[in-house]
Amino acid sequence: MKNLSGICDFLQKNIKAVIHSHGYKIVKIKKRNSRKISTRLASQNGVGEASFDKHAHELVNKNKYFTVQVDARPGINHLREALEWLVRESISLNRTPLVFTPHFDSIHNYDIEVNATWDKYIDLGNLQINNILLGTNSSIQAVMEKEIAGFRDLSILWIERDHILTDKENEEFDIIVRHNRTGLEIKSVHAGVRGLPDYSVCFMPSHQVLDTYNQVSNKLQNYSAMHVRRGDMLGMNDVYPNLDQETQPDKIKATISQILPSGSKIYILTNERDKAFFDPLKTDYEVLQYFDFPELIKLVECEQPDNFLLFEIEKLIFENAKTKIYTFTHRGGEARISLSSSLGWA
């Protein structure tokens, strides 16, 4: 039985390769007002770019939707990037972005699962689309499945990861679903018009994130912020061999003493679990962390903690600090104050 299963897998993979070599992809479709899902071959020959009027104020068709099926369960930054590619492809097709439900890796949340939708973290009614070359800005709205009336009766096209949509397919179906395991950039798809290289996508914070940030920032005043990435990163010795040493309090003090005068107020955002870890810095600085604010501590020290929500608020705290200190040296070579000589984004 095991051998038979292996043979079936082998045949399936090779049949798919033959189909692809002839310029076709396998797709699944559901017609409007139907429950039946069928499979068919879709030609990839003569694919043209989907229309996208770069000067239009109305960027999306509110009756047609595009979404991505994401299998990965990472942290919120990874899934936020996946959401950005979803939005880019949606507007390149003149479709409303239909956001996927984020499924986070619980390792980032004290090993406790978080059941939430994107509207908890970002404002889906105000996605900012910026034309970098023209300096213009537009606002569009994304939706969740529960907001689409008659969702089950709409026509749906399910496509493979590297399927390049044709104009005909874009016109034919109400909803298009791309399966992309990681959700991240697909060079063969997003390198062209689907990626919209002349545009940037900016997610605005949700009302909950913004309200909580405002409560905390009113208490902070005139502060610097430092991001100290430890936790899971300490086990990646092949990539960050000196991270543990570089993020010890004595090393941190030696680094920041060259920038911040004694007595400065510093907010530290970190995934270090030991609450007393940064106490040695308190002899020279006014050190603050989430547990110094009741508005923040209640988000994670409760029955259903949400460390991702705390992270979104802390990002605003970091972005609005007068001096920012990062963990890693910038990958792209940009100048910034960092604790580690290793390259990274955080």
Number of strands: 16
**Helicity, in percent?**
25-40%
Unreliable segments (pLDDT under 50, ≥5 consecutive)? none
Number of contiguous helices: 9
Assess the beta-strand content as a share of residues.
15-25%
CA radius of gyration is 24 Å
* Sheet with most strands: strand arrangement: 2-1-7-8-3-4
The helix/strand order is HEEEHEEEEHEHEHEHHEEHHEEEE
Shape: elongated
- Give the terminus-to-terminus CA distance: 49 Å
Could you give a short account of the major beta sheet? 6 strands, mixed
Structural class from helices and strands?
alpha/beta
- Rounded mean pLDDT score: 90
Number of domains: 2
Quickly list its features.
alpha/beta; five-stranded parallel beta sheet; 23% strand; elongated; Rossmann fold; 346 residues
Structure description:
- With 346 residues, this protein is an alpha/beta fold.
- It folds into 2 domains: 24-205, no CATH class; 207-344, Rossmann fold, CATH 3.40.50.
- 27% of the residues lie in helices and 23% in strands.
- Strands 2-1-7-8-3-4 form a 6-stranded mixed sheet, with helices on both faces. The protein has a 5-stranded parallel sheet with strand order 12-11-10-13-15, covered by helices on one side. Strands 6-5-9 form a 3-stranded antiparallel sheet.
- α5 (207-220) packs across α9.
- The longest helix is centred in the first third of the chain and has 20 residues, at 2-21.
- It is elongated and about 70 Å long.
Offer a concise description of the structure.
This protein has helices at 2-21, 76-92, 167-172, 187-190, 207-220, 243-246, 249-256, 294-300, 307-319; strands at 24-30, 37-43, 61-69, 95-97, 122-131, 136-140, 156-159, 175-179, 199-205, 224-228, 265-270, 286-288, 324-326, 329-330, 337-338, 343-344. The protein has 346 residues and is α/β, with parallel strands linked by helices.
